[in-house]
Fold this sequence. Notes:
By secondary structure, the protein is an alpha+beta fold. The chain has helices spanning 20-35, 65-75, 86-99, 120-130, and strands at residues 3-7, 13-17, 37-42, 58-61, 80-85, 103-106, 117-118.
Amino acid sequence: xxxxxxxxxxxxxxxxxxxxxxxxxxxxxxxxxxxxxxxxxxxxxxxxxxxxxxxxxxxxxxxxxxxxxxxxxxxxxxxxxxxxxxxxxxxxxxxxxxxxxxxxxxxxxxxxxxxxxxxxxxxxxxxxxxxxxxxxxx
Length: 138
């Protein structure tokens, strides 16, 4: 696991371990807020929805075209990266996933496309934080 240094109040630094999946998830929210675009992967029949580490189906999304294209290549030549606006993702795609009880995969990477997945509510809360908005209430 990679390490990173953090500055403590005392002025001393301390090395901490940072997971690749955690770094990918943090990058996802920073990047989609900046670009206002979310990427996903599909073919003519739809999108892959693998079972996540939580045992529930997940719909993965990426924060850049390049990340989504890497995933598409791993899944097969029939897959392609597709974009949607952040506003559409937030107002239409996420509520649909919540209705179907899907997890949301965030910037999955590596040869096995692994990473963190969240509930829709967790994604909305993280997105609101990234957008510096007030907390989400049901």
